């Protein structure tokens, strides 16, 4: 999962020492630009806390919201502590079924980030592969791949995700929603967001493939897939990190929207979007906290990821420095 | 020019053909249309006869040809859930979506333009800063969250505006229904239109601000100032006029997105439009409606893109020269 503070990115990509990304990140300029922007540091802290909370949700959460033995309907719809009728056990209240909101949000964050992160990674793998093939092979393959990308780009991603979701549900109809929901969402997001990677990678592959080291590799007689993976890929993968970060925000929104629309995760396995959709039903009875806290969590997470993505884009772009 | 037009139209037709192929493949391979039509106790011979009469035993390519032929006559079959012709279901709901989309687009254009011009002319005022902050939020918040926020504020807490439905509608002609003519219809339109238009509004605002700042730096504005023209006529007669062309192009391109994004807004506000119909179809795997909606939205996007490209060809002399050579 792309945890975009520089230190963590270093650890994540660690192995490929030849990559220009690693050198750029080790460059103290980046660290300096990170330290000098307070907003970025706040955003990074928020994103880190979200990932941390999501990863260790079972340890941090005071309650297990999915253990029927520990959830009591008598605890339903308790307001936050500071309001009349609040209960100190449930700091930000409980939902309609007596689940602790804080715990439910932590588990929801876990599902949201997992689906968003996996979706973005799938999109990256599809996009990078197609971009490399299109750029390196050229000719008819290139024309077909880029034509498909152009057509897909004219439609909003959320519409494509919705459509793929619908078709996938039709195909997986035998399985219960609990099992099929996450793969369906990951596939929908992956197939909706690959175009940007493909275009970027293809562009830089077109430049790289005419350089001497590629010619040399070809002269030695290496097969095309090896040249693409071992030689071209490390030199074109730089911008992918920025796209990954920016798209993570979009993917989380897409997942939340699909879940809110009722075609994403079921209420038994709620993501932030599902929690918001549940809370939306109780808006009129005045139980504002059921929708407000998951909503705020989603908004703050997306805002922080976007800020981090913007910063990363500027920091990795030498022309703006 | 003619060659360019023909080539662009051919490309658009190819894209539509690809969209039709996807719609057809959905029909063919997701769920079995016959199973949707017959009961459990229908005898096997009956099922086989139905299969034959629907032409499901023909080669795939023949079926695809028939699908396109039907699509050209706006015939997309019968909805699995409603047992009614898909075309009629969509036509009944089209006015609701179109009225919502156009109101949202008008709101986005007018308010975005005013805010953008203000931000460009009074760059450092606190109001301009506030507009900038609002635009950042508008881009980051998902549509459905904005809708929920507006409902909570204006429908639940303040109780000023209704939170769902179209209000009272008036019938015009055979099938068009409008909410523009009744007070309740207009009141019901306010919150959904703002929700749907907010993203486009921030987009237009940012665009107008950037373009306007650009234009204000050009020589002819300096010259107009040197001529001693009134500030108002410089700002609105000279500067604004020249920012409008890209703005209108973008706004036109966004109209398709507005209609597509109406799916979310219509769900939040329970607005009886095509988007809500499509969403119910996705939830219930109602392939005929999904296919028809896909073709409709595809046609819309292809037409808008074609129109924009052709207008550019007409307006931009550089493109015309490039085409001739």
If you had to describe this structure to a student in words, what would you say it looks like?
The complex is a heterodimer of chains A (321) and B (325). Chain A is built from 15 helices and no strands. Chain A is mainly alpha-helical and 321 residues long. Chain A is elongated, with a radius of gyration of 22 Å. Chain B has a domain at 89-273: MetI-like fold (Orthogonal Bundle), CATH 1.10.3720. Chain B has 13 helices and two strands; from the N terminus they run H-H-H-H-H-H-H-E-E-H-H-H-H-H-H. Chain B has a two-stranded antiparallel sheet. The relative contact order of chain B is 0.14. The mean pLDDT of chain B is 80. At the A-B interface, helix 8, helix 13 and helix 15 of A face helix 1, helix 7, helix 10, helix 11 and helix 12 of B.
Features:
heterodimer, A: 321 residues, mainly alpha, 15 helices, 0% strand, disordered N terminus, B: 325 residues, MetI-like fold, two-stranded antiparallel sheet, 13 helices, 2 strands, globular
Write the layout of secondary structure elements.
The complex is a heterodimer of chains A (321) and B (325).
Chain A: H1 6-13, H2 20-26, H3 28-36, H4 38-55, H5 57-60, H6 101-137, H7 139-154, H8 157-171, H9 177-192, H10 195-208, H11 212-220, H12 224-236, H13 240-260, H14 272-280, H15 289-316
Chain B: H1 2-29, H2 33-37, H3 44-53, H4 60-72, H5 86-121, H6 126-140, H7 143-157, E1 170-172, E2 176-178, H8 183-216, H9 219-226, H10 231-268, H11 274-283, H12 287-315, H13 317-324
Antiparallel strand pairs in B: 1-2
Quick summary of this structure?
The complex is a heterodimer of chains A (321) and B (325). Chain A contains 15 helices and no strands.
Helical/strand content category of chain A: mainly alpha
Number of strands of chain A: 0
Q: Count up the helices of chain A.
A: 15
* Highest-level CATH class of the domain at 89-273 in chain B: Mainly Alpha
By CATH, the topology of the domain at 89-273 in chain B is MetI-like fold
Count of alpha/pi helices of chain B: 13
- Oligomeric form of this entry? heterodimer
Topology order of chain B in helix (H) and strand (E) letters: HHHHHHHEEHHHHHH
pLDDT averaged residue by residue of chain B: 80
What characterizes the major β-sheet of chain A? none
Taking all Cα atoms into account, the compactness measure Rg of chain A is 22 Å
N→C terminal distance of chain A: 27 Å
> In the CATH classification, which architecture of the domain at 89-273 in chain B applies?
Orthogonal Bundle
What's the mean pLDDT score of chain A? 79
How many beta strands in the DSSP annotation of chain B? 2
Q: Greatest interface and its residue counts?
A: A-B, 36 and 38 residues
Shape of chain A: elongated
């Amino acid at each position: 999962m792309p945890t975009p503070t520089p230190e963590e990115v270093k650890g994540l990509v660690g192995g490929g020492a030849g990559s220009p990304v690693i050198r750029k990140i080790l460059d103290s300029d980046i660290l300096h630009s990170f330290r000098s922007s307070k907003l970025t540091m706040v955003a990074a802290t928020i994103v880190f806390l979200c990932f941390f909370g999501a990863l260790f949700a079972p340890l941090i959460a005071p309650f297990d919201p999915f253990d029927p033995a520990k959830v009591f309907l008598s605890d339903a719809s308790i307001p936050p502590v500071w309001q009349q009728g609040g209960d100190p056990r449930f700091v930000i209240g409980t939902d309609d079924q007596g689940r602790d909101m804080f715990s439910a949000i932590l588990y929801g964050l876990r599902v949201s980030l997992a689906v968003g992160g996996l979706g973005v990674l799938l999109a990256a793998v599809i996009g990078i592969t197609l971009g490399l093939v299109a750029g390196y092979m050229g000719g008819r393959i290139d024309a077909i791949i880029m034509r498909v990308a152009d057509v897909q780009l004219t439609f909003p991603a959320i519409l494509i995700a919705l459509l793929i979701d619908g078709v996938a549900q039709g195909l997986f109809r035998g399985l219960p929603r609990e099992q099929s929901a996450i793969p369906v969402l990951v596939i929908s997001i992956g197939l909706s967001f690959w175009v940007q990677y493909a275009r970027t990678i293809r562009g830089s592959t077109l430049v790289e493939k005419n350089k001497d080291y590629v010619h040399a590799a070809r002269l030695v007689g290496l097969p095309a897939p090896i040249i693409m993976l071992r030689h071209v890929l490390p030199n074109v993968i730089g911008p992918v990190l920025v796209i990954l970060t920016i798209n993570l925000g979009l993917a989380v929104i897409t997942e939340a929207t699909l879940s809110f629309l009722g075609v994403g995760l079921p209420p038994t396995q709620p993501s932030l979007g599902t929690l918001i959709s549940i809370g939306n039903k109780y808006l009129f009875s005045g139980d504002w906290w059921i929708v407000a806290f998951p909503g705020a969590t989603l908004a703050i997470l997306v805002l922080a990821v976007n800020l981090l993505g913007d910063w990363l884009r500027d920091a990795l772009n030498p022309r703006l420095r | 020019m003619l060659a360019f037009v023909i080539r662009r139209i051919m490309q658009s037709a190819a894209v539509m053909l690809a969209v039709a192929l996807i719609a057809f493949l959905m029909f063919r391979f997701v769920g079995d249309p016959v199973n949707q039509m017959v009961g459990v106790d229908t005898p096997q011979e009956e099922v086989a006869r139905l299969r034959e009469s629907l032409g499901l035993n023909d080669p795939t390519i023949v079926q695809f040809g028939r699908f396109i032929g039907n699509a050209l006559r706006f015939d997309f079959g019968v909805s699995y859930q409603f047992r009614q012709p898909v075309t009629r279901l969509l036509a009944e709901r089209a006015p609701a979506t179109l009225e919502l989309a156009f109101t949202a687009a008008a709101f986005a254009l007018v308010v975005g333009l005013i805010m953008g011009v203000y931000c460009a002319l009074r760059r450092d005022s606190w109001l301009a800063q506030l507009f900038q902050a609002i635009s950042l939020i508008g881009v980051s918040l998902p549509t459905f969250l904005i809708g929920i926020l507006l409902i909570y504020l204006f429908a639940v807490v303040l109780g000023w505006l209704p939170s769902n439905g179209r209000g009272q509608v008036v019938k015009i002609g055979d099938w068009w229904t409008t909410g523009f003519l009744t007070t309740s219809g207009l009141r019901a339109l306010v919150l959904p239109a703002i929700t749907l238009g907010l993203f486009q509004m921030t987009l237009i605002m940012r665009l107008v601000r950037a373009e306007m700042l650009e234009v204000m730096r050009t020589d002819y504005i300096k010259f107009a100032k040197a001529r001693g023209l009134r500030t108002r006529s410089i700002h609105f007669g000279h500067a604004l006029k020249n920012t409008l062309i890209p703005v209108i192009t973008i706004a036109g391109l966004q109209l398709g997105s507005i209609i597509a994004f109406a799916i979310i807004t219509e769900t939040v506000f329970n607005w009886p439009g095509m988007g809500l119909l499509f969403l119910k179809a996705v939830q219930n795997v109602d392939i005929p409606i999904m296919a028809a909606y896909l073709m409709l939205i595809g046609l819309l996007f292809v037409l808008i893109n074609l129109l924009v490209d052709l207008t550019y060809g007409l307006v931009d002399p550089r493109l015309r020269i490039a085409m001739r050579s």
